[in-house]
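Dear support,

I submitted the protein below through the web form. The confirmation email said the job was done, but the results page showed an empty box. After a refresh the structure appeared. I'm attaching both so you can tell me whether what I see now is the final result or a partial one.
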Amino acid sequence: MNQEDITDIKTRAYQQIGKLFFAVAFADRKIHANEVKQLQDTYRKAWLHQDHSSDEYGEEATHQIEIVFDYLVEEHDEINSFEILEEFDEFKSAHPSFFTKALNKRIMDSAIAIADSYAGVNKSEMVTISKISEILKD
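What the results page shows now:
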């Protein structure tokens, strides 16, 4: 696998993680300002500067998390969180070596922080987090 392929996989992985975080925030079919702010805070604390690879535009690849999340916040009318989870599961199955124990923990910690940011974790968010946990166990 050449460097271009690795960069593409990392970029797509971070896009998938951004979608995953959106699925958590949108589990109750509402996006709250606290969830958006928590994603921004979590991104800066847990994701920014953690992977020094760049995307095709020369930006840090992890920035795709925030870009995709923000895009979905604006365009979420037809989005189904279940489909996002299925797509993530397929991507993870295709690229298992990317998803280390440390990365999986960071994903779970971030998802829980986003869910907990508005009035605690509700039932819909808990179901979504449980599904993410199941996907990451494989």
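Response: this is the final, complete result; the empty box was a page-load delay. The chain has six helices and no strands.
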